[in-house]
Write a structure and sequence with these properties.
Chain B: InterPro entries: Ribosomal_mS29. Chain B: It holds the Pfam family DAP3. Chain B: This is Small ribosomal subunit protein mS29. Chain B: It is found in: Mitochondrion. The structure holds 2 protein chains of 2 kinds. Chain A is mainly α. Chain A has 2 domains: 2-62, Orthogonal Bundle (Helicase, Ruva Protein, domain 3); 81-146, 30s ribosomal protein s13, domain 2 (Irregular). Helices cover 42% and strands 5% of the residues of chain A. Chain A has 8 helices and 2 strands; from the N terminus they run E-E-H-H-H-H-H-H-H-H. Chain A has helices at 16-19, 28-37, 51-63, 68-83, 87-94, 108-113, 116-121, 145-148, and strands at residues 2-5, 8-11. A two-stranded antiparallel sheet of chain A has the order 1-2. In chain A, strand 1 (2-5) and strand 2 (8-11) form a beta hairpin. In chain A, helix 4 (68-83) packs across helix 5. The longest helix of chain A is centred in the middle third of the chain and has 16 residues, at 68-83. By secondary structure, chain B is α/β, with parallel strands linked by helices. Chain B is built from 18 helices and 11 strands. Chain B has helices at residues 2-9, 23-26, 44-48, 53-59, 92-98, 102-108, 120-131, 152-165, 177-180, 198-216, 238-247, 252-265, 301-311, 335-341, 354-357, 373-385, 394-405, 409-418; strands at 84-86, 115-117, 141-145, 169-173, 187-189, 194-196, 225-226, 231-232, 271-276, 319-324, 364-367. Chain B has a 5-stranded parallel beta sheet, with helices on both faces. A two-stranded antiparallel ribbon of chain B has the order 1-2. In chain B, a hairpin with a 4-residue loop joins strand 7 and strand 8. The chains are: A mainly alpha, B alpha/beta.
Chain lengths: 158, 420
């Protein structure tokens, strides 16, 4: 049996503390804090919760920033750096490590994960676009020079 | 080879061997269940049987038959020190309702009957409590202490057996840790700022009613009580009150407190409150407050009620209160309690929680010693009679094991069955 809560399916046999971590943006600490707030003991399973307790938990979760809201915030932060033309933004755009790691060897995670939002949205710098938000200008396709210059492009998985 | 293969095949998956045991030992060997982190949940059938005495017949050859006498109150005399007696068959189901303490259960399980030896300390303890049968419980608050494996839980079990055979009302808590390890639901009472454990209270009431039902039928309430939806009038039987608490969980704790009050006032039957692993009630619980801080045991309803009796803040008109320490569960060893009992010198650089120290005032310490020579001989004779494997001469075995273990009961037991 599965409990549907705020767009996420939680298996009912799981302990509440563990099931709450299935949400993007909730780890073990926040899950424990939520359980303490509503006096849910540590071995309580989801099917033992009453309707009122489930409603209280979903109210609490809807007041927190989780799932799509949090993902949007993360993407906006990266786009902000790109739009104002910072060093961090350029590194994200190039798909390189941002926090000063070495690139001579070992930058594999950065090459896969960094800049994927920028590539998706087709984003540019302030200098190239009059309006920063990609959704306001859907036909914008001119990419700046730095995004096109990728010496290890053929190694990237596409 | 085929014999060994047959026995290895039929091993229960939950039992694991700590050491490789030769096939000749398998017939009456005692396998101590290893305490690992990956505990598999018990099936419903196994959960109803708190003892595994029936498992023995399915998996192992029956040991040589020994006839043991029943451990009745008459048997607790100086002449019987070192002799083994088995629990009377009428008493075993009563203890099974409360459940045996878990570690002792494992150690008793491979034996044909659950049986214990009469020791000097069992006679002393039962005499102490017999003398308290006409005194208030504040005057007899005993804590059993001693090193690990010296027989505190077993001693407690023997006293419970003694007083179950007599017309005493017995309340036994075999494993106090489950009250505070966040395994039962808890609800905050906003008026008193305390946390109530409704299912736990209902379970306790059920157990007490099942064991002491016959004696409780004679008792009646002294005044009217108003619960959530029910009102119960004076002179109605106490059992009716308990039924309300068992059916309606929301008022179960209220009923539990009223029950202890009312039953404590009675003059016909003295009350024995026995708690094993009592040090768990003197440590911080695993329950959390609304602001995610760990609760002290006096913030939880059921532990606080029991601590009130240990501290002498509440009492039974006639009765006694015993607790047994346990050093097997390290996170629950209580420094404040050890300091109050004189087992630990307080450090001048550390502050100990005053609220817990307040509940440890006026407790009597009862030290349980290791086996004496007569007791150890009696126990070893029983092990040798009851097995086909201890072939060595008994004197040699006795000397070897007694010297190596210094008479510690658990070590003696393990040295016989697992080797030194």
């Amino acid at each position: 049996m599965v409990l549907h809560l705020l767009g996420v399916n939680l298996p009912e046999n799981k302990i509440v503390r563990v099931a709450l971590t299935y949400f993007y943006g909730i780890g073990h600490k926040t899950a424990q804090r939520i359980c303490s707030k509503f006096s849910i003991h540590k071995t309580c399973k989801l099917h033992e919760l009453s309707e009122s307790q489930i409603q209280q938990i979903s109210m609490e979760l809807s007041n927190m920033k989780i799932e799509t809201d949090l993902k949007r915030e993360v993407i906006n932060n990266i786009m902000h750096h790109r739009s104002i033309g910072t060093y961090k933004g350029k590194r994200h755009a190039m798909g390189y490590p941002v926090r000063g790691q070495r690139t001579k060897t070992n930058a594999r995670t950065a090459r896969i994960l960094n800049g994927r939002w920028i590539r998706k949205e087709g984003f540019g710098t302030l200098a190239n676009s009059s309006n920063n938000m990609p959704s306001s200008n859907p036909t914008f396709k001119i990419l700046p020079f730095f995004i096109q210059f990728k010496p290890f492009d053929r190694l990237l998985p596409h | 080879m085929a014999f060994r293969h047959f026995y290895l095949k039929t091993f229960n998956k939950q039992i694991s061997l700590n050491h490789y045991i030769q096939p000749s030992l398998l017939s009456t060997c005692l396998i101590v269940q290893k305490r690992t982190g990956t505990a598999k949940p018990k099936t419903a059938a196994e959960q109803t049987l708190s003892t595994s005495f029936t498992k023995n017949k399915e998996l192992y050859l029956p040991p040589p038959a020994i006839t043991l006498e029943e451990m009745l109150p008459e048997v607790y005399t100086d002449e019987n020190i070192g002799k083994i007696y088995r629990f009377p068959p009428e008493i075993i189901p009563k203890i099974e309702i409360f459940k045996f303490p878990p570690i002792l259960e494992q150690e008793l399980s491979p034996l044909p009957y659950p049986s214990l030896a009469i020791r000097q300390s069992s006679i002393q303890l039962t005499n102490l409590i017999e003398n308290a049968s006409q005194k208030s419980s504040t005057e007899t608050r005993i804590i059993l202490s001693g090193e690990m494996g010296v027989g505190k839980s077993a001693l407690l079990l023997q006293t419970i057996n003694y007083f179950l055979c007599k017309p005493w009302i017995v309340i036994y808590i075999p494993f106090a840790i489950k009250f505070i390890n966040s395994s039962y639901p808890y609800i905050k009472n906003k008026i008193t700022n305390e946390f109530v454990q409704p299912t736990l209270s209902a379970e306790l009431l059920k157990q007490i009613k099942a064991v002491n039902g016959k004696l409780l039928q004679d008792l009646t309430l002294t005044r009217d009580y108003k619960l959530n939806k029910y009102t119960i009038k004076s002179n109605s039987p106490v059992i009716e009150l308990m039924d309300i608490g068992i059916k309606d969980i929301s008022c179960a704790f209220q009923v539990f407190e009223i029950f202890l009050d009312e039953v404590g006032k009675n003059v016909n039957y003295p009350i024995l409150l026995a708690v094993d692993v009592v040090n768990a009630f003197y440590t911080a619980t695993e329950y959390t407050d609304v602001d995610d801080t760990y609760l002290d045991p006096d913030r939880l309803s059921v532990p606080r009620t029991i601590l009130d009796y240990f501290a002498g803040k509440r009492d039974f008109t006639y009765g006694a209160i015993i607790g047994a320490l346990s050093q097997c569960h390290k996170p629950y060893i209580s420094k404040p309690l050890n300091i109050a009992l004189g087992l630990l010198a307080p450090s001048p650089w550390k502050q100990y929680p005053q609220n817990i120290l307040n509940y440890a005032v006026g407790l009597q310490r009862f030290d349980v010693p290791n086996y004496s020579q007569t007791e150890a001989k009696g126990v070893l004779d029983y092990y040798c009679d009851g097995s086909s494997i201890l072939q060595q001469s008994r004197d040699k075995l006795f000397q070897k094991t007694f010297i190596a273990t210094n008479g510690n009961p658990r070590k003696l037991y393990l040295s016989c069955w697992k080797g030194l």
